[in-house]
Amino acid sequence: MNQDALKTLVGQAALHYIEPGSIVGVGTGSTVNKFIDALATMKGSIAGAVSSSLASTERLQALGIRVFEASEVDELAVYIDGADEIDHAGHMVKGGGAALTREKIVAAQSRHFVCIADESKLVTTLGRFPVPVEVIPMSASRIARQFAQMGGTATLRSKNGAPLVTDNGQHILDVAGLQVQDPQAFELQVSQWPGVVTVGVFALQKANVCLLGASGGVKTLVF
Ligand code: 5RP
Fold first, then answer.
1. Which of 34, 65, 191, 198 has the largest count of CB atoms under 10 Å?
2. pTM of structure
3. Has residue 205 got a pLDDT over 90?
């Protein structure tokens, strides 16, 4: 099975976690796109979705799924999202699709985080994938120097030759060369630096379950 087929498999498997009549928290990315396509097959049984990005909102609405603002609804039963990396305790690196801030907000609003990923995303220690950090533009150089002191190399993410601008109007630094031994301590530390909007380590909002697409089928990891 190729990676695309594995993403389809876990996207469909995530439907088992959807409570009938509920509003579903929906992440962002190519794996989540497979989930959204699967969710459309049961759109009559859910009330709608809260989305973590403009891209997911567009896809949900195009498939006829009602999208609510996060602030319009209370707690969500479940949040379904992908990851760039996940460790054996459910800590993740996220933000490869630049949606980390809204992803963390919707995850925090949800009782249950179900991560959907293919097995290439499972790691022992977070940091092989450069850690995305959404920053206020005027703070980017100083934050890059702070990461350098930790042994990381921060690069401003660009798109079409200009700095990428997130859905929130901010920039992203991708920090390579880190070995995140204590994800919760790292998240707490970096979140306090002035100018950091969101760090792409999800330890406080870690996954409760990971549906991991492997050649033998879907493995369910419970944390
Ligand atoms: C977007 C994310 C995604 O969940 C992450 O990048 C994984 O994406 P994909 O499913 O395309 O590999 O954090 O900000």
1. 198
2. 0.96
3. yes
Q: Is 188 exposed, middle or buried (0-12, 13-18, 19+ CB in 10 A)?
A: middle
Domains of the chain: 3-123+204-222 (3.40.50.1360), 131-200 (3.30.70.260)
Q: How far apart are the first and last CA of the chain?
A: 26
pLDDT by residue (tens digit) across 19-32? Answer: 999 999 999 999 99
Distance between CA atoms of residues 4 and 93, nearest Å: 20
Among 26, 94, 202, name the best residue to mutate to test ligand 1's pocket (greatest count of ligand atoms within 8 A of Cβ). 94
Residue 138 to residue 144: CA distance in whole angstroms: 11
Verify whether ligand 1 is closer than 6 Å to residue 3 (CB atom).
no
- Identify residue 79 by its one-letter amino acid code: Y
Three-state SS at 188: helix
Q: Give the whole-angstrom CA distance, residue 153 versus residue 145.
A: 9
- Grouping H, G, I as helix, E, B as strand and the rest as coil, residue 31 is helix
